[in-house]
Amino acid sequence: MDDNKIMGKVSFMMVLFLFFLVLSCFPATVQPSINTSVQAMAGFGPSIILPLTGNVYPRGQFELSLRIGNPPKSFTFEIDTGSDLTWVQCDADCEGCSLPKHELYKPGKAYVPFDDPLCAAIGNQGSDDPKKKCDFTVQYVDGSTSGYLVRDIFTLRPDKGSSTLTFGCGNKIQSYTGKPLETTGILGLGKRVVSIPHQLRAVGETQNVIGHCLSGKNEGFLFIGNDPVPSSGVTWAPMLKKELV
């Protein structure tokens, strides 16, 4: 395998990222109203809004649930704005998986070949067999995950169809701290084209804008698209466009 390690949690997004740090936030069960006129005029669908649970302390993470497959099955993901590739613990001879076998994602035959553009986007530079499975390795501060890329259906809106997206089938998970992963996978929200927001933008689903609102009650929401962005009262700041070493 080529050296295609994607440095997680040390890079920042090039897409617009909004972080509302407020004392009182929308509860996870109360989603903001969406004005669809702007995105509809631009050819994009309405924003995707996903409830979050978690906290900064003591857990240090926030999670959401995504439905994958047909029929759809729910999987939990820790959100990570510092990495790009979304991956899920996979029922494919998994080494180091932290969940029971029946809770793992079962991959079908829709794997991503080595000659796919998204395979090149994660750093693979070619292969003697262009149709073999595209493998990946993601390095984090506290561990690493390896596997291969697959495609499947994501049901992200309850009232509007589904999207076929590319993500990682992780079957070799290593923790440097000894602490097992609490969720089924990691949702990468970084700047590269393999990230879920970028893929949704590429197929015209929604704008490549993400943000989240977090309350002090272990809840909040993540949005993809620019509908929930207030017209005033938001301070904008440019994000770094290069990785920190």
CA-CA gap between termini: 23 Å
Q: How are strands sequenced across the largest beta sheet?
A: 4-5-10-6-9-8
Helix content: under 10%
Runs in which pLDDT lies below 50 for 5 or more consecutive residues are 1-42
* Mean pLDDT across all amino acids: 80
Our Rg estimate from Cα atoms comes to: 18 Å
Which percent range describes the beta-strand content? 25-35%
Q: What is the tally of beta strands? A: 12
Structural class, judged by helices and strands? mainly beta
**What spatial form do the alpha-carbon principal axes imply?**
globular
Looking at how many chains there are and whether they match, the oligomeric state comes to: single chain
The largest sheet, given as strand count, sense and whether it forms a barrel, is: 6 strands, mixed, barrel
Helix count, per DSSP? 3
Topology as a string of helices (H) and strands (E): EEHEEEEHEEEEHEE
Structure notes:
- The chain is mainly beta and 245 residues long.
- It contains 3 helices and 12 strands; from the N terminus they run E-E-H-E-E-E-E-H-E-E-E-E-H-E-E.
- Strands 4-5-10-6-9-8 form a 6-stranded mixed barrel.
- Strand 11 and strand 12 (219-224) form a beta hairpin.
- It is globular and about 55 Å long.
Helix-strand layout with pairing:
Elements: E1 5-7, E2 16-21, H1 37-41, E3 48-55, E4 61-68, E5 73-80, E6 87-89, H2 117-121, E7 135-139, E8 143-155, E9 163-175, E10 185-188, H3 196-202, E11 209-214, E12 219-224
Parallel strand pairs: 1-7, 2-11, 5-10, 6-9
Antiparallel strand pairs: 3-4, 3-12, 4-5, 4-8, 6-10, 7-8, 8-9, 11-12
